[in-house]
Design brief:
Distance between the termini: 200 Å
Shape: rod-shaped
Radius of gyration: 60 Å
Structural class: mainly alpha
Strand content: under 5%
Largest sheet: none
Helix content: over 70%
């Protein structure tokens, strides 16, 4: 008989009015479902807001990075230009130093400078002009060719016997 009395109580508890514990559990369950629905609804709105904020931040970051890259490029270009100018100045100084040392070494060896050679060429040209003027006035026609340098430089043959002949006048 104990069995028969316990079953009707369970049935009565299931169909009990709102102040019984079963409806409170159901209210909690429904409140939880409502909170979950609200979180999903607000969560998707929050995700959209975060995506929009992320896109704005990404654009801003890319613009900042682009600006910094441009500034760095300008600085490096300026530095490279300065370095190139400094290198050019140093190469010029080194070149002049080298030229001076070579000129001093050639001077010690007795080698004439380019200026010395030009002065000599001018002097030779001047002397040739004077010689041509004198030879044109004094003697032979201008068509006569001078003896080749090899004939001018040969020593004259000595007379046989090695004695000089002297003419006596009188």
């Amino acid at each position: 008989m104990a069995k028969s009395t316990s079953t009707p109580r369970r049935k009565a508890a299931a169909s009990a009015p709102a102040d019984s514990p079963t409806p409170a559990v159901q209210h909690v369950w429904l409140a939880g479902l409502g909170a979950m629905a609200k979180a999903q609804e607000q969560g998707s709105k929050a995700i959209e807001a975060l995506v929009n904020d992320g896109l704005a931040f990404q654009r801003k970051s890319q613009a900042e990075a682009q600006q910094r890259l441009h500034e760095a490029t300008e600085r490096l270009t300026h530095m490279a230009s300065d370095f190139g100018q400094q290198t050019s100045v140093r190469v010029d100084k080194l070149e002049h130093l080298f030229e001076d040392r070579v000129a001093k070494a050639l001077h010690r060896l007795g080698m004439p400078t380019l200026l010395d050679i030009q002065v000599l060429n001018d002097r030779v040209a001047q002397l040739e002009a004077q010689l041509a003027a004198l030879s044109g006035v004094a003697t032979a026609p201008a068509s006569k060719k001078p003896a080749p340098a090899s004939a001018r430089n040969k020593p004259k043959a000595a007379s046989s016997g090695g004695a000089k002949t002297v003419k006596k006048s009188g």
